[in-house]
Amino acid sequence: MPRIPTPETISAAPGASQPMLRAVEKQLGVAPNLFRLISNSPAALEGYRGMSAALSKGRLPAPTRERIALAVAEINECTYCLSAHTYLGKNLAGLDDAEMAANREGRSNDSMAAAAVHFAAKVARERGHVGEADLEAVRRAGYDDAQIIEIVQHVALNVWTNYINKVADTEVDFPVVQARQAA
């Protein structure tokens, strides 16, 4: 049972959130529970959508962004985000099951993405306390400083959604995927 109420419909959300939720629904075909939950605060919904939109214009490809989301959700044991990003990873980013399993372990079967996912997992586990060797490893793999900043920003955005969902105990509206640690 959710600990923070999720508006049942777009029209039940605060008025300032309704246009943003309609835009989400137009983009995804549905307004998932996470977005409706966040809509309790129009400012938070605007911030989340704004950061997501800005990062989607960055230089990290969508599959790498989904890989990072899966790694961070596993670290934070967020069932909602694991479920959502498994669905998105498969259906929008074209990731296969073996790749998503590797991502949840902080790895990737793609050599370039592996460095980004490993670095993102380290940032999440160590709360940003990475060493010079960690930065050099991601640079050697071909990532520049702008992409490294984007990786860190994706970690931060995903930690935020993980925490929101864990605090609220958001009802999962995707096929459920449990964290390995929580199983």
TrEMBL record:
Residues 43-121 form the Carboxymuconolactone decarboxylase-like domain. Pfam families: CMD. Transmembrane segments: none annotated. PANTHER family: CMD DOMAIN-CONTAINING PROTEIN, SI:CH211-175M2.5. This is Carboxymuconolactone decarboxylase family protein.
